[in-house]
Queue: 3 jobs
Job 1
Amino acid sequence: GAGVSQSPSNKVTEKGKDVELRCDPISGHTALYWYRQSLGQGLEFLIYFQGNSAPDKSGLPSDRFSAERTGGSVSTLTIQRTQQEDSAVYLCASSRGNAEAFFGQGTRLTVV
Amino acid sequence: GEDVEQSLFLSVREGDSSVINCTYTDSSSTYLYWYKQEPGAGLQLLTYIFSNMDMKQDQRLTVLLNKKDKHLSLRIADTQTGDSAIYFCAERLYGNNRLAFGKGNQVVVIP
């Protein structure tokens, strides 16, 4: 596609439920990032995939968070047993190697 | 470390120049970026500078990099109301290539 696509754009879920957020990167981009942006805050790094290398998971806030990237393309961020503090906008970005990263529009997650 | 610091708020009159500042701590960063985020939108890449440069100009945007002080600035000339947004600086960390972002600087353009 022309840009990074994220789905859903909005998600409301009940506390304790699991959610999956999807990211379709720009075709040919080898690097994929997930960030979280809480209200009025900057971007919190979550996880980074680069080609076939082991992902950098150092930003995942707890073991309830996991992400995978299948076939070097689409990525899914999964949050298990959601908590209210997980409410945020989840942003995905992709880049071609070391080049500039392009962001999707984000998924706004609200845990009620 | 990878802390990126930005001041929080700037108001500027339409037509004036605005300058947004950022400091970073990783002296080995390879690229530094400026992103713009309008309300309810994702981040839009505005411009970037390679670490061996000290200035880059792109239309109304001028990026200055002082590697000695680890200071990055973005100057917007002839600021327009459409420039009202949050501006994030980011550094690409050497080694793991991760992007570290500052907390953002909200710019409000007053007509």
Job 2
Amino acid sequence: DSGVTQTPKHLITATGQRVTLRCSPRSGDLSVYWYQQSLDQGLQFLIQYYNGEERAKGNILERFSAQQFPDLHSELNLSSLELGDSALYFCASSLGTYRQETQYFGPGTRLLVL
Amino acid sequence: DAKTTQPNSMESNEEEPVHLPCNHSTISGTDYIHWYRQLPSQGPEYVIHGLTSNVNNRMASLAIAEDRKSSTLILHRATLRDAAVYYCILHGVNNNAGNMLTFGGGTRLMVKP
């Protein structure tokens, strides 16, 4: 158990819909990361928050947005969903922003868009 | 981050040592070498990391070449539970100030009983 929790575990929805994925980081961790894992693209970084502020953006679509709340949990919002958004979405957390820090990953949310 | 090259897959027998290679010929002097693994149906998990010297922890050892252009993750006695995809990741200074991980294709390790 990494200490990172993600809800829900599974999500099935239709094209055009909007969903929210939730992540609670390990106690004491200030950085939260979101990654997407699809069969054709592998594991890709989407976005990082540190202590409530956006720190870095990766290959995140404009239809996707995220935020980190004062209690440090984070939500990833996916809107106008397309079939290609079906993937595993992982949240990870780390203490801060140093490159030698370990990132702890949650169990993921499996999203299926029909 | 600089690129890494790993074999797509490797096979090992249970209870034997496994050496997982990683080439990173364009590594810079400040890049950390991280290894993560992903067990089936789970999120990635940290294995080990190093900068210049060899490193040991309870899970594995990391051997780093003197010129740092390659490294090897060593599992001393493979178990069935070690069957996973192993990712070698270089973690350097990012212009956008984030410290995200950049995953490649990894090596799928299969362990035979």
Job 3
Amino acid sequence: KNEVEQSPQNLTAQEGEFITINCSYSVGISALHWLQQHPGGGIVSLFMLSSGKKKHGRLIATINIQEKHSSLHITASHPRDSAVYICAVDTDKLIFGTGTRLQVFP
Amino acid sequence: EPEVTQTPSHQVTQMGQEVILRCVPISNHLYFYWYRQILGQKVEFLVSFYNNEISEKSEIFDDQFSVERPDGSNFTLKIRSTKLEDSAMYFCASSVQGAGYTFGSGTRLTVV
């Protein structure tokens, strides 16, 4: 069983839609990270969470430590949000989920 | 904003050859990591490095792999005798404890 599970694996949306990506994990962690990977391959850190909720622009990330679950929300999605979104948990190293490929169409 | 720099961006090598992938971490970061991503798969941990020594390594990081910090700024990953299955994107990352990670843009290694 994977230590980090993400859903859905693929997501297609129309511009303006509200997007939710989910992440569940099964190990003890010090933090959870949401990352973005564009087609060129580079990885960008979006959020680091150890509790509660964080917001940056149209992106919101939440974590429930007791349930070992996190969500990434994108409000008013835009085609430029199209990317792979990856959940990774921090156990003195990062353990990555398989990613969610998001495509937003105009 | 400070960056982690990786070179080269692409490397093609023949099977059995040695390759060295280079990384310049952010200057005040103390923890360094190598990860790899085989095409179509998830990112996997290879090795972490702190205080000039390996702090943890994965099962993937066998005797073919080594890491060094040769001059206090560069952080290198060496693969001694490359195999076809070493073809992947290799990412370097650095961090300050308790803070986030900064990733380099990756080196795409193709073994032919």
